[in-house]
Automatic annotation (TrEMBL):
EC number of the protein: 2.8.1.7
Sequence intervals crossing the membrane: none
UniProt xrefs under CDD domains: SufS_like (cd06453)
GO BP annotations, alphabetical order: cysteine metabolic process
Pfam families (alphabetical): Aminotran_5
Catalytically driven reaction(s): (sulfur carrier)-H + L-cysteine = (sulfur carrier)-SH + L-alanine
Protein role: Catalyzes the removal of elemental sulfur and selenium atoms from L-cysteine, L-cystine, L-selenocysteine, and L-selenocystine to produce L-alanine.
The protein, known as: Cysteine desulfurase
Organism encoding this protein: Garicola koreensis
InterPro entries in alphabetical order: Aminotrans_V_dom, Aminotrans_V_PyrdxlP_BS, Cys_dSase_SufS, PyrdxlP-dep_Trfase, PyrdxlP-dep_Trfase_major, PyrdxlP-dep_Trfase_small
Length: 421
């Protein structure tokens, strides 16, 4: 077993105290990750030295801003195994997923000309999702189905919170879109992408991957995975909020009609009509989040210096510590796999007889920051027969002492509520 990383000192927020001087133990990385000093410095440095509108001004500062913006795109493309022009900046992963969904809707309405034919849906066409999706990769497809007459179908979850790969025959000859998570933000289960992509390709369907959890914690290569689209967000990758990205296969981006229109994405505008720039600019209307992309670039450099394989090994050990520790606490049930195979350090659980919000409050009183609620995944919780859960999620800065404090806190929950007494 390799030695755990020790980088918490790089993250200023983790040095603070909460609840009358208690050490902050941050176990909510699955919701948003903390930022290292390098990211904070990069964003501030851009605003102090290079802030300007990109792709517009002819002056030096504008040139510097544009270079920083596009350098971040190049770094992100390399990080996820994509080509430079296959990365579209968005505000977050939710916008990225909606971009694809609205491309299908707009094409179905007749926009985009003949080149958008591959995105046109007909009544009876099928969209396949899964029971493990975050709402961001479910609700847009529900809406698309409702607006076009397409049929929404889904791959169910197994009893231990993995995708039921015995049910892939849901993907059939009528399937046009297969949207699925790479790693569940509730169960932590990592999806075996290959059989889903193979089945989709066999039936001529496009694949859309929610990579929000995976891109932040595992080495990913979208080209190697054979994906058509993938969405992810900067704030889960140690970067700023307000920036995310869509990966799209170059040939498909060329065919897609835009989602948001306005300035910066146009070629020729007359009073009667408008033509649009090629991708990725076609999908980047308006003033862009330049400082945030610079901060994300710094986060990617930070992660690359550590190494994603090394990070994954670190978090695999934390997963084992979390699962082993929770197993020692009576009346607690893990919602998801209870072993580390193909699993992230995202552990949702229920305490028998205690509401998740009450669990979270007792933990918070001890300085332990966890997530409570349905985690924007109500169908996933429903598959376990619960409405909500408490979730602990680790990151690069999490250490063994943090897990020990969390397990001690869980025992305190049991004692406080007298569960099982």
């Amino acid at each position: 077993m390799s030695e755990l990383l020790d980088v918490s000192g790089d993250f200023p927020l983790l040095g603070r105290t909460v609840r009358e001087g208690k050490r902050l133990v941050y176990l909510d990385t699955g919701a948003t990750a903390q930022k290292p000093t390098a990211v904070l410095d990069a964003e501030r440095g851009f605003n102090e030295r290079h802030n300007a509108a990109v792709h517009r001004g002819a002056h030096q500062v504008a040139e510097e801003a544009t270079e920083a913006y596009e350098s971040a795109r190049a770094a992100l493309a390399q990080f996820v195994g994509a080509d430079f022009g296959e990365i579209v900046w968005t505000k977050n992963a939710t916008e990225a997923l909606n971009l694809v969904a609205y491309a299908f809707l707009n094409a179905t309405l007749g926009l985009g000309g003949a080149e958008a034919n591959g995105f046109r849906l007909r009544e009876g066409d099928e969209i396949v999702v899964t029971e493990l999706e975050h709402h961001a990769n479910l609700v847009p497809w529900q809406q698309l189905a409702a607006k076009t007459g397409a049929v929404l179908r889904w791959i169910p979850a197994t009893a231990d919170g993995r995708l039921d790969t015995e049910q892939l025959d849901v993907i059939g000859e009528k399937t046009r879109i297969v949207a699925f998570t790479h790693a569940s933000n509730v169960t932590g289960a990592i999806t075996d992408v290959a059989p889903i992509v193979e089945r989709a390709k066999r039936n001529g369907a496009m694949t859309v991957l929610d990579a929000c959890q995976s891109a932040a914690h595992l080495p990913v290569d979208f080209h190697a995975l054979g994906l058509d689209f993938a969405a992810f967000s900067g704030h889960k990758m140690l970067g700023p909020t307000g920036v995310g990205a869509l990966y799209g296969r170059a040939a498909l981006l060329e065919q897609m009609p835009p989602f948001i229109t306005g300035g910066s994405m146009v070629e020729i505008v007359t009073m009667e009509e408008t033509t649009f720039l090629p991708p990725p600019q076609r999908f980047e209307a308006g003033t862009q989040m330049v400082a945030q992309t610079v901060g994300l670039h710094a986060a990617l450099d930070y992660l690359s210096d550590i190494g994603m394989e090394r990070l994954a090994a670190h978090e695999d050990q934390l997963t084992a510590l979390l699962l082993e520790g929770i197993a020692s606490v009576p009346q607690v049930r893990v919602l998801g796999p209870t072993d580390t195979r193909d699993r992230l350090a995202v552990v949702a659980f229920e305490v028998d007889g205690v509401h998740p919000h009450d669990v979270g409050q007792v933990l918070d009183d001890q300085g332990l920051a966890v997530r409570v609620g349905h985690h924007c995944a109500q169908p996933t919780h429903r598959s376990f027969g619960v409405h909500a859960s408490t979730r602990a999620s680790a990151g690069v800065y999490t250490g063994a002492a943090d897990v020990e404090a969390f397990i001690a806190g869980l025992h305190r929950v049991i004692d406080f509520f007298g569960v099982g007494a």
